[in-house]
């Protein structure tokens, strides 16, 4: 532990990095080469590349000047090949005027100084965005980019960071790190490094993505009117991502770095973990307890003790003598197993994985050609070189060991990589083969976890006969969303950590990682019944929902704190299962558009100054607003409702937004609101998604005065990749309200899953008038309403709720409810 001696006068050092003094200097020539503008200056070159969707890439080549300089525009694997992205290249015009060159596209206008290569950014409509000072570097070629920022600028993204939602006044480092020390606001680097900064200026939002997987820095602290982006090694290779709004930035950024594939339903269920469930009997007993207590659960995790001496791809024969039998038994209960797989392979001549990998040269080597060896759980270990396709394929195929037993999900831990040595990772001079273009570990450190997850996801896919794999990872880099869900590592059972997980997961979402969540209940330290309840209430609405705790901590399964805690946990885990049709549809939207599942209010209400740094509320999709209680002994809290009408999910009470309200929140209540106009599908509680076959959908329609709502309901088998070949259904709901009639239009956008034998129960909640005539009709090709049949209906007067039943539509239709 540190004492005050740490700040003794002779120990205090300057913080922050210096800015190099070398710059491009006077521009000597500018030439256009297809999508590139090549600026050649006295001291180096800068290539500006026009990309689809208005994005612009900049790559600096210090020292490389002149016509014959070699300028490689190779990207890291974070960036998906843009040729296949379907986006067309915008027209770009280059003009020269006075001491400037101007490059104009419809999305952005850059003016580049001939004197020093400084750049001024404007929107396509000539609105000022920011000035970038000339890129500056030092002898070691560490490069700094300095951008001006307006007084009211706010900062988001940056992946998995501690602190508040708005990163104004903060400074962060990008260096994948295993941090068991408490995750406090001053920690600058955690497990994930996503160098995307979203800058939200008063009337323009843009993104900067620094594609450098070595150590980099973002500093919004040192200056009040500007911020810095700095590299330590490798190249200054970054992307300007135009908005004009935050949704535009996230959507463009995810078109650049890719989007997640649809996870299987079971990955969206409730998951239970602990370091570790120690034996086959314990796991089975745990599963039976969930079922006996009727608490929904889809997966149980096996932490490191399942292995034989921590050797990956093994089971300990004493603790887990019959994993196949255990998995088959669990399957009957609707529960899947997710084993942990770390990258460290035990140095052991008698261990086939070590032998095979060594013989084929799959492990990372030091410059002297000897393998890098470092201590992790199994003792001295070697590490696969995932930059080599052949090593990744081998690693992926090793997962047949698990898939053959019926395992469909893998948990990747320690993949920063974490090593128990002074540098806490692999030696930086370890060389990666990189398919024939060797790079040092220091240059690509932040890619290791992503490459491991890619190898795992691809290997699982190859071996799952058309089922979707689930991969969970601790470490990652930009683009990790393509391969894995992310959990936020070793938090603690602190109320503060529960609160912190909200902005953390929200910023991960703005950084392209829609599928994320913390250890519910907290990993280290000891949870309490009250904390577990509050965290479970909140976690039930997070994209990823897993309770996990540490070896030495008090047990924290939902029933460990007596019947009241158990009952409330059951209710909220149940709520998650009831809302799965909604959650799944929001996931599908995230997979399609890159927009997050869990959204900060600033994403939906960017003009509202009350939400720019709102850290203790979130939206699930667009329609549900949650305001969890994250302090002990608290039974009410202030909730900010943005513009519009909001309906209390539990009581039906209506509120006009644009103000704060005080919400009652006794222990059993999570304050939850639905936007008027919302369409929210529910299913009955099931104890596992494996039991979903008999599900019946209830679609709740929250009408409200003059509100218009829309929602797209997505359905498929939730298990296989068949949706890619059209085996899915997509229905678009649109709600319109006129003085005395409510119209719900349901368009069938795609009909490749489910049958019209399936019944939907439509519930019009909290109607503002007494319903009279109700017509259900088809919409003809020319858009006319052909109302004919009157459906079976039920009106609950006390609740002012109208229920009617229809068959799942296979063509466009409308429901009209007239006032009596
Ligand atoms: O530091 O595998 O973050 O979830 O339980 C120990 C044991 C290594 C760290 C992970 C944690 C996991 C634990 N691992």
Automatic annotation (TrEMBL):
<dbReference type="Pfam" id="PF21365">
    <property type="entry name" value="Glyco_hydro_31_3rd"/>
</dbReference>
<keyword id="KW-0378">Hydrolase</keyword>
<dbReference type="InterPro" id="IPR033403">
    <property type="entry name" value="DUF5110"/>
</dbReference>
<comment type="similarity">
    <text>Belongs to the glycosyl hydrolase 31 family.</text>
</comment>
<feature type="domain" description="Glycoside hydrolase family 31 TIM barrel">
    <location>
        <begin position="261"/>
        <end position="585"/>
    </location>
</feature>
<protein>
    <submittedName>
        <fullName>Alpha-glucosidase</fullName>
    </submittedName>
</protein>
<dbReference type="GO" id="GO:0005975">
    <property type="term" value="P:carbohydrate metabolic process"/>
</dbReference>
<dbReference type="InterPro" id="IPR030458">
    <property type="entry name" value="Glyco_hydro_31_AS"/>
</dbReference>
<dbReference type="GO" id="GO:0030246">
    <property type="term" value="F:carbohydrate binding"/>
</dbReference>
<dbReference type="Pfam" id="PF01055">
    <property type="entry name" value="Glyco_hydro_31_2nd"/>
</dbReference>
<dbReference type="GO" id="GO:0004553">
    <property type="term" value="F:hydrolase activity, hydrolyzing O-glycosyl compounds"/>
</dbReference>
<dbReference type="InterPro" id="IPR011013">
    <property type="entry name" value="Gal_mutarotase_sf_dom"/>
</dbReference>
<keyword id="KW-0326">Glycosidase</keyword>
<dbReference type="InterPro" id="IPR048395">
    <property type="entry name" value="Glyco_hydro_31_C"/>
</dbReference>
<feature type="domain" description="DUF5110">
    <location>
        <begin position="696"/>
        <end position="764"/>
    </location>
</feature>
<feature type="domain" description="Glycoside hydrolase family 31 N-terminal">
    <location>
        <begin position="46"/>
        <end position="219"/>
    </location>
</feature>
<dbReference type="InterPro" id="IPR013780">
    <property type="entry name" value="Glyco_hydro_b"/>
</dbReference>
<dbReference type="InterPro" id="IPR017853">
    <property type="entry name" value="GH"/>
</dbReference>
<dbReference type="InterPro" id="IPR000322">
    <property type="entry name" value="Glyco_hydro_31_TIM"/>
</dbReference>
<dbReference type="InterPro" id="IPR025887">
    <property type="entry name" value="Glyco_hydro_31_N_dom"/>
</dbReference>
<dbReference type="Pfam" id="PF17137">
    <property type="entry name" value="DUF5110"/>
</dbReference>
<feature type="domain" description="Glycosyl hydrolase family 31 C-terminal">
    <location>
        <begin position="594"/>
        <end position="680"/>
    </location>
</feature>
<dbReference type="Pfam" id="PF13802">
    <property type="entry name" value="Gal_mutarotas_2"/>
</dbReference>
């Amino acid at each position: 532990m540190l004492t005050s001696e740490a700040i003794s006068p002779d120990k205090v050092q300057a913080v922050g990095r210096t800015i190099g003094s070398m710059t491009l200097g006077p521009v000597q020539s500018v030439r256009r080469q297809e999508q590139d503008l090549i600026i050649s200056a006295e001291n180096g070159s800068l290539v500006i590349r026009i990309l689809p969707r208005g994005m612009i890439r900049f790559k600096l080549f210090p020292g490389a000047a002149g016509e014959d300089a070699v300028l490689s525009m190779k990207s890291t694997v974070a960036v998906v090949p843009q040729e296949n992205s379907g986006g067309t290249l915008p027209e770009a015009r280059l003009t020269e005027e006075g001491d400037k060159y101007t490059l104009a596209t419809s999305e952005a206008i850059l003016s580049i100084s001939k004197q020093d290569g400084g750049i001024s950014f404007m929107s396509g409509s000539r609105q000022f965005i920011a000035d970038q000072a000339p890129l500056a570097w030092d002898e070691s070629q560490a490069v700094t980019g300095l951008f001006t920022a307006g007084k009211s600028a706010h900062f988001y993204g940056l992946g998995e960071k501690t602190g508040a939602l708005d990163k104004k006044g903060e400074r962060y480092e990008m260096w994948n790190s295993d941090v068991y020390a408490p995750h406090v606001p001053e920690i600058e680097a955690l497990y994930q490094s996503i160098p995307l900064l979203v800058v939200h200026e008063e009337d323009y939002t843009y993104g900067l993505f620094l594609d450098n997987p070595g150590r980099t820095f973002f500093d919004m602290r040192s200056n009040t009117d500007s911020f810095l982006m700095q590299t330590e090694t490798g190249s200054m290779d970054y992307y300007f991502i135009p908005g004009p709004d935050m949704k535009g930035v996230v959507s463009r950024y995810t078109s650049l770095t890719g989007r997640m594939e649809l996870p299987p339903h079971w990955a969206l269920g409730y998951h239970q973990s602990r370091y570790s469930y120690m034996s086959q009997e314990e796991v089975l007993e745990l599963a039976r307890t969930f079922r006996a207590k009727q608490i929904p659960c889809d997966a149980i995790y096996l932490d490191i003790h399942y292995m034989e001496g921590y050797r990956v791809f093994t089971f300990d024969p004493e603790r887990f003598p019959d994993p196949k039998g255990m998995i088959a038994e669990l399957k009957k209960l609707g529960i899947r197993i997710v084993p942990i797989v770390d990258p460290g392979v035990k140095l052991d001549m008698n261990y086939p994985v070590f032998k095979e990998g060594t013989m084929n040269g799959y492990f990372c080597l030091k410059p002297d050609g000897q393998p890098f060896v470092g201590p992790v759980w199994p003792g001295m270990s070697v590490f696969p070189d995932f930059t080599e396709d052949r090593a990744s394929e081998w690693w992926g195929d090793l997962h047949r060991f698990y898939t053959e037993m019926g395992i469909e999900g893998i948990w990747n831990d320690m993949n920063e990589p974490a090593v128990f040595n002074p540098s806490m990772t692999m030696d930086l001079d370890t060389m990666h083969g990189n398919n024939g273009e060797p790079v040092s570990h220091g240059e690509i450190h932040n890619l290791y976890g992503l490459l491991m997850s890619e190898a795992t996801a691809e290997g699982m896919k190859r071996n799952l006969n058309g089922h979707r794999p689930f991969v969970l990872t601790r470490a990652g880099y930009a683009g990790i969303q393509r391969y894995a869900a992310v959990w936020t590592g070793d938090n603690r059972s602190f109320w503060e950590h529960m609160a912190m997980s909200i902005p953390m997961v929200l910023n991960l979402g703005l950084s392209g990682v829609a599928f994320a969540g913390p250890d519910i209940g907290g990993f280290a330290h000891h949870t309490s019944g009250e904390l577990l309840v509050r965290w479970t209430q909140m976690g039930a609405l997070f994209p990823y929902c897993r309770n996990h705790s540490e070896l030495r901590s008090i047990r924290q399964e939902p029933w460990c704190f007596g019947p009241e805690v158990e009952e409330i946990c059951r209710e909220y885990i149940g709520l998650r299962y009831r809302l799965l049709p909604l959650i799944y549809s929001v996931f599908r939207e995230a997979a399609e558009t890159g927009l997050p599942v869990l959204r900060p209010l600033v994403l939906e209400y960017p003009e509202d100054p009350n939400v720019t740094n709102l850290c203790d509320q979130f939206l699930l999709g667009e329609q549900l607003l949650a305001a969890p209680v994250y302090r002990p002994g608290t039974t009410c809290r202030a909730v900010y409702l943005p513009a519009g009408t909001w309906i209390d999910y539990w009581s039906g009470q209506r509120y006009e937004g644009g103000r704060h309200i005080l919400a009652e929140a006794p222990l059993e209540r999570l304050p939850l609101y639905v936007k008027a106009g919302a369409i929210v599908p529910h299913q009955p509680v099931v104890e596992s998604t494996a039991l979903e076959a008999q599900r019946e959908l209830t679609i709740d329609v929250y009408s409200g005065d003059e509100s218009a709502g829309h929602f797209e309901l997505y359905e498929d088998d939730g298990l296989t990749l068949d949706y890619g070949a059209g085996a899915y259904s997509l229905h678009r709901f649109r709600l319109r309200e006129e003085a005395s009639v409510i119209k719900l239009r349901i368009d069938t956008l795609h009909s490749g899953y489910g049958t019209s034998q399936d019944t939907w129960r439509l519930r019009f909640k909290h109607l503002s008038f007494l319903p009279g005539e109700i017509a259900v009709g088809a919409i003809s090709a020319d858009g006319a309403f052909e109302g004919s049949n009157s459906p079976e209906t039920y009106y609950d007067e006390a609740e002012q709720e109208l229920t009617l039943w229809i068959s799942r539509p296979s063509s466009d239709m409308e429901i009209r409810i007239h006032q009596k």
